[in-house]
Amino acid sequence: MKVILISCIIAVVSWVFTPSAVALTQIKLFDISYHKCPSEIGKGSVTSGTTMAANCFIVTGKAENGTYKTVYDADIFGRIYDANNNSVMENRNRLGSIQEIPPGVSDFELRISVAANQPEPLKLKQFKAAGFSAQVRR
Fold this sequence. Notes:
Elements: H1 2-16, E1 24-36, H2 39-42, E2 54-65, E3 71-81, E4 94-101, E5 104-115, E6 123-132
Antiparallel strand pairs: 1-2, 1-6, 2-5, 3-4, 3-6
């Protein structure tokens, strides 16, 4: 009888004092554009895993957090194509992250490297982000 009573008390207490869930929060990204990196940042850029010359760009835009909580560690996803509609980031749609997005609309920027042989203008499509309502990475 005591075991059943204790089990019931533990069950009730665990329901009442359940920690809040840390779930993904979707972030709308808009007004996406890009510009070349300043020379001190982009000098000598190479593409990932090679020694091929690359151009450095800064992608900028606005992030809209429609919740009342700050979102942390938001991964940025999107597609980038060159002037010939060739993918700039082959087999890769995670482009980077935003460390912290307060409620409301805020600016963000992201540095990317593009192979020097891919012609401009770049086409930035399907940008979005998803993050957490509490810090999960340290």
